[in-house]
Amino acid sequence: MNRTGATRPLRAAESQPDETAIKPFRRLWLALTLSSLGHWLSVPALIAVVGALTRDDDLPVQAQAIAGVLVLMVLPALLLGPPAVLLAGRLDRRITMVAVDGVRFALVVSVPLVDAVPWTLAVAFLVAFGTLLWFPVAAAVLPAVAGGEPEEGYEEARRSLLRGGYGSAPVAALLFVALALVGDAAFGVADRADLAVFAAAVVFLAAAATTFTARALSTATAGAAAGLGALSAPLKLLFQGQRRSGRTQPDGPPVAGAGAQAGGAHAAVSPASGPVRGLVLAGTVVALTAVAVFAVARLHARDLGGGDAGYGSILAGLTIGAAFGLFLGPRMLAPLSRRRLIGLAVIAAALALVPVALVQNLVVVVFLAAFLGLACGVAWAVGTRSAQDTARSFAYLRALALVTGLVAVAAVPPLAGLIGAHRLSLGGAVYDLGGPAAALLVVAVLALPAALVAFRRLDDRRGIPLLADVAAALRGYAYTPPELEESGPAVVRDRGVFIAFEGGEGAGKTTQARLAAIWLRDHGYDVVSTQEPGATKIGMRLRAMLLDQETTGLSARAETLLYAADRADHVANVIRPALERGAIVVSDRYVDSSLAYQGFGREQDVSSIARVNAWAIGGLLPDLTVLLEVPPETGLGRLASPADRIESEPHEFHERVREGFRALADADPDRYLIVDAGRPQAEITREIQYRIREILPDPIPAGTEDVTSTFPAIKDA
Ligand SMILES: Nc1ncnc2c1ncn2[C@@H]1O[C@H](COP(=O)(O)OP(=O)(O)O)[C@@H](O)[C@H]1O
Ligand SMILES: Cc1cn([C@H]2C[C@H](O)[C@@H](COP(=O)(O)OP(=O)(O)O)O2)c(=O)[nH]c1=O
User: Fold this and answer.
1) What is the pLDDT of residues 372-412, one digit of tens each?
2) Is residue 252 part of a domain?
3) Is 493 in the same domain as 465?
4) How far apart are CA 449 and CA 285, in angstroms?
5) Range of 605's domain?
6) Which residues line ligand 2 (CB under 6 A)?
7) Parallel, antiparallel, or unpaired: how do β-strands 422-426 and 429-433 relate?
8) If you measure from the C-alpha of residue 509 to the centroid of ligand 1, how many angstroms do you get, rounded to a whole number?
9) In total, how many domains does the chain have?
10) Range scoring the smallest mean pLDDT among 91-100, 240-249, 545-554
11) What's the pTM value of the predicted model, to 2 decimals?
12) Considering the domain boundaries, does residue 531 fall inside one?
C-alpha cells in the first residue's frame, strides 16, 4: 500500500544507539539512581533522628520537629529551582556531581556526631538542595550520553533516568526497614536511626565515586557550550515531561522531593473549564492524601506499637503501591472512561485514609497505605496523561502537587500534635484515638468531598450507570447503553459478505487481504477489495492529511473524527453499494482500527469512539474480522518504506494498539478469527481460507440453488 510523507530517515538508522554512548549513560544512570537512593533514604533516616532526639518531649514538639525536616526537604524544590539551574550551568558538570554527593556524604555522617535537632534540620535542607543541583546537571549531560537528538533514544534514556530517580524511593523505604530491623536485633539500638543515616551517607559516597570515575561525563559535556540553552531545554523535558510531538509523557510521582520545577507554574492549564477544575482538584487530593500519610507515618507507627521498622513499612507500602499505580494506571480497565477512572481513584484514596487512621493493626495499616498509594499512583498517571487533552502542559499539576505537599507536611504533623491522643468510650468499649490518626481523619474529611466533586467535574459519561460501566470494563469491553447501540439507518444488506482484516503495522493485512480476494475471485465471486484510510476520492485527501509526517499537532479527537469521516464516506460510497449488489467486500482495516489506535493507542475513551463510529457506519459491522496478531517490533521490522505519522509512534503506543485489538476480538469471539501472524505466509493464508469458507454464500445466484444447500446462510451483523 502506498504511503504518504517520505522525508524521514529510516527508523532502523535512528534506533541504533551509538555503541560508545551506552557506557557513559549507564554510569550516569547508576550515579543518579544511587544519588536518589541516598536522598530517599535520608528522608526517613533524618526524621527518625529528630524523632529520637525529641523522644522525651511532648507530642507537639515531636510533631513540629518532623514537620520541620519534611518542610525543609520540600522547600528547595519549590523555591530554589531556577537558581539551582543557573548555578549548575556555571559549574563543571562531573565535578558538580562528585562534589554534591561528596558534601552530602560528609553532611549526613555528621548528623549522629553532632546529634542536635537544628543541625539535623540544616542537613535535611542541604541534602534536598543537593538533589536540586544534581538533576539539571544530569539533564544537561543527558543529550551527550544518550546519543544525540531528542528522538526516541533520548526519550527512552530520559525515562530510564526518571525511573531510576523515583523508583529508588520504594527501594530506600525497604532498605530503611531492613536497617531498622538489623539495628534493633544486632545492636539493640532501636529508635536510633544511626545505621540508616550511615547507610545513606555510604550511598552518597558510592554515587560520588561513580561519577568521579566516569571521566566521559566531563568530556561529554565539554562541547555543550550552548550552556543554559542546552541546559534548560532538556530540563523541561525531564521535569515538565514535554515531548517533541506536543503530547506529553508524565512519569513523575506527585510529590517530587527531587526537583519538580515550581517555575513550571506558568503552564497552560487554566482552571477555567469543569474538567480542568476536576483535574486540579484530583491532583490536590492525590498530593494531600499521600503526603499526609507520609508525614505522620512515624508518629502513627509508634502509636500502633511499631518502631522505625514499622515506620519504614508504612513508607514502603505507600511508595510500592504508588509505583504499581503509576505503572498500571494507564493500562488499568482500558475500556473505562479515563476521567471516570481518575475520579474513582481519588475517591478510593480519600476513603482509604479512614481505615488507615482507625485500624489499630500495623500490618493492616501497611497494606491500606499500599492501597492508598496505588490509588494515588493510578490517579496521577492517568490524570497527567489526560491533562494533555485539556491543556498543553501538566507542569501546573506538578507545581500544585508540590504546594499541596508542602502545606500537608507543614500542617498535618502539627495538627496531630495539637489534637493529641484521646480515649473514646463507645458504649462500654474504649477506643484510643491517637493524634496522628485524628489528623488523618481531618484530612479525610477535607479530601473526600473534594474527591467527590472532582469525580463529578471529570465525569464524561453522565447518565451512564457507573456500576454497569465498571462491570463491563472489568469484562474487557466498553459499556454502551442499549439506546445508543444502534445509531443511524438500519443495516440494509442483500446478499453480500463483509470481511475486514485488522492488526498492527506490518502484520500482513495487505498481503492476506489481497490473497483472500484473489482466492475468492478464483472461486467465481464478485469481490471488491478496498482499504482504509483512503478508498474514496475524499478519503485519499483525508489519508494524506492523516499519515503525512508534516501533519503536526493534530489533536487526538480531530484525528478520530477524520478517520471516522473517511470511514463514513467509505461505507456510503464503496462498501454498502457493493454489499447491496451481493459482492464480497474485503477491507484492509475498518472500524476496529479506530478503536485500537485512537482509543487504546491514544488512550482516549474507547466507548466514545465506538459511538462516533457507530453513527458514521450506520451500524454496518463485518461478518468476519481477521485479526493478524504479531508483536509490534516484528511487524514494524517488516516494513521497508519510510515510517508514516502513525507508524512513528513509540513502542508503547503500538503495544497498546495490539492489546486493544486483542481485547476487541476476545469480547466477540464469534465474529473474529485471531491468527498468529508471525508464522509463514502460506500457513496463515490457509487458516484464513478455512475460516472464510464457513461464511461464504454459494457463488451460484441464490434462488437457482436448493434451499437445503450445505453452505451456511449469511448472518446479518
Ligand atoms: N507471514 C509473514 N511473514 C513474513 N513477512 C511477511 C508475512 N506477511 C507479510 N510479510 C511481509 O511484511 C511486509 C508488510 O506486509 P503487509 O501485508 O504490507 O502488512 P500490513 O498491511 O499489515 O502493514 C511485506 O513486505 C510483506 O511481504
Ligand atoms: C483505518 C485506521 C488507520 N489508522 C492508522 C493505522 C496505520 O498506521 C495507518 C494506515 O496506514 P496504511 O499505510 O494503510 O498502513 P497498513 O499498511 O499498516 O494498513 O492509519 C488509524 O490510526 N485509525 C484508523 O481508523
Assistant:
1) 999 999 999 888 876 654 434 456 777 788 889 999 999 99
2) no
3) no
4) 10
5) 482-693
6) 1, 3, 505, 509-510, 532-533, 547, 563, 588-589, 593-594, 597-598, 646-647
7) antiparallel
8) 7
9) 3
10) 240-249
11) 0.60
12) yes
